[in-house]
Every structure is written in structure tokens, then in C-alpha cells.
Amino acid sequence: MGIIKVSDELHQEIRKASAVMARSINAQAEFWAKMGMLAELNPHLTYSELIKQELAKADLHPLVRSEERHE
Fold first, then answer.
1. Helices 8-21 and 25-41: crossing angle, nearest 10°?
2. Cβ distance 49 to 62 under 8 Å?
3. CA–CA dist 24, 53 (Å, integer)
4. I need a surface site. Which of 3, 6, 10, 37 has the fewest CB within 10 A?
5. Which distant-in-sequence residues (6+ apart) come within 8 Å of 5 by Cβ?
6. In a 10 Å sphere around its CB, with 0-12 CB exposed, 13-18 middle and 19+ buried, how is residue 29 labelled?
7. Rounded average pLDDT per 10-residue block, the chain, 71 residues
8. For residues 17 and 24, is the Cβ–Cβ distance under 8 A?
9. What pLDDT sits at residue 70?
10. What pLDDT score was predicted for residue 61?
């Protein structure tokens, strides 16, 4: 585990987002870093597709909306 420095402004945004998302400040920063890395490595995927991919890796399969089942 390491320590990274971020601007005060970014830290405030992380703090606000962590409260909304029910994550610790560190977990929110880690989530954003991971999603940013995944987005850079997979520029052809949307945020939703990245989330679905990560859920599938964890063997978690969310319920699919009825209109998506017919595709």
C-alpha cells in the first residue's frame, strides 16, 4: 500500500462522491483510478460495458432488463 498526493480540489470531489456512493474516501479514489485505467486500456468500451465486464469477472451477473434479453 502506498500514499499518493492529490490536489485539495480533487480530494474534496472524492470526499463528496464517496458519501454519495457509500464508499470510503480511499475506496472511491481506488475505484476512479481503476475505472480510468480500464477506460484507457479499453477505449472502445463504454462505462456500462466496463462495469458489466468487471461484474462478470467477479462471477456476478446482474439481472438484465427485459428489452436486452431479446437481442
1. 100
2. no
3. 23
4. 3
5. none
6. buried
7. 90 97 95 97 96 90 63 53
8. no
9. 54
10. 74
Neighbour tally for 23: CB within 10 Å: 15
Note whether 35 and 23 are within 8 A (CB): no
At residue 29's C-alpha, the angle toward residues 25 and 33, to 5°, is 170
C-alpha cell of residue 5: 498526493
pLDDT at 65: 65
Q: DSSP labels for 22-64?
A: T--HHHHHHHHHHHHHHHHH-TTS-HHHHHHHHHHHTT--PPP
pLDDT value at residue 63: 73
Fill in the DSSP letter of residue 70: T
